[in-house]
Structure formats: structure tokens, C-alpha cells
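With this grant's support, we have paired protein sequences with C-alpha cells. One protein thus recorded is set out beneath this paragraph:

_____
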Amino acid sequence: MLGNIRRRNLLKIISCCSQVDFKALVLDYMPNGSPENLLHSQNIPLNVLQRLNIMIDVASALEYVHHGYSIHVVHCDLKPSNILLDDDMGAHVADFGIAKLLDGRDSMAQTMTLATIGYMALNLGMEGIVSRRGDVYSFGIVLMETFTKRKPADEMFVEESSLKQWVANSLHPDRVDSEAMDADLLGAEEDHHFVSKRDCSSSIMRLALACSADSPEDRINMQDALVALNKIKIKFLKDTESE
């Protein structure tokens, strides 16, 4: 099914190799690697607009597989290493190896959970319930990591603390603590666009929390998340132009 899907933000499956002792998919080569490498390994600074565009591309891919067919595709393991970047830094969602198909259903139960801890929704990890809202949860965590440069398994999160709780504690009614964001993202307070970047980051973090609510019923869906991200981008561009 994924081989028949043609969508700009899904990694294209060109062909496959299936032999007794070797099985592989042939995929488009993505020269810029993954956001995980850029954020954590190569330490290449990404600006606000680049990060926004990457997450809009990811949201577009998930919105399509969640709502574009009568059979819903649930990725089940969304994380930065499963997002790949092309020549133009366009993002493509990859690695649907444990994806599930929901044929007209909202959810299904499975006996074995293979998703990655930290990005996995509680109802999947504890109850084995696969649903589109599980992908939405993972998307919210990836949003947080992309803008804070903190992994959910960071050593600073011990006992009851978590990336999600840390982000929630950093939010105020009108702003987000700049210390919670990636230092390469906002720059110094005297920078020309500091306020616009901080306001944009605040909106992103609120959206991330709306995606990663503990209860699946309280999470927004990917259609609403995509609309929200595009609105945040439009406002950010207007704010930076007017400064």
C-alpha cells in the first residue's frame, strides 16, 4: 500500500528486494539525513523557519496517511530519526516498518509493543491500543524536541519529570521561558527578531502539549495540528517582516 502512495512528504519506495536470506526496500536517497543528526550529532543550527517547515512537512505526511484514505495508516514509531531531509531540507516521513492499517476503525489492540519509549503514547505502551491519536502524541513530543533540543530520554529527566512536564512548566500566559528553548534558536534578547521567535516558540509549545495530552480524547487530530502550524508560520513571517 505504501509503495502505491505518492505524496511529497512520504519517503518514496522505489522497489524492493526479497530473497530467502535478504530483504530490503529501495528508497530515495535523502542527502541531509535526519533532524536528529542535525540537532544532536552534527550540531548544525536550524533557524525557526527551517524547523517550522520540517514539522509542517511531517504534519502534512501524517495528515495524509491518517485522513487521506478509507484505510487509515498509523505510523506507530514517529521520532526524529524516522524523518529524513532532502536537498532542499524538505522532510519526508520514513520507516513504516511497524505501521498498522485501520480499516474503517478508530483503533485496534495488539499484543506486542515495539514503539520507542519516550515518543510512545501511554495507551499504546500500557494497553497496546493503536490509534491515529497515538501518532499525534508522538508528533507532539517530536515538536518539543525540535524546538528545545532535548530528547525525551535526556538525563535531566529523572523520576517523575519528563520533557512534556518540563515544557508545560516553562509556559506562561504570554510567553515561554527562553531558557527552555534551544539556545541556537532564539539568540540573545537584544537580537532583532528575538520577541517574534519567542512568541512563535510559545505557540509551538502550546500546540505540542495539545498533541501530547495524556488522554487520547483530549488530543487534537493531525488535520487541526497542520492548520495550527500553518497559522503559526504565517504569523511568524508577518511579525518578522514588521519588525
Remarks:
- The beta strands are 13-18, 23-27, 71-74, 83-85, 91-93, 100-103, 107-109, 129-131.
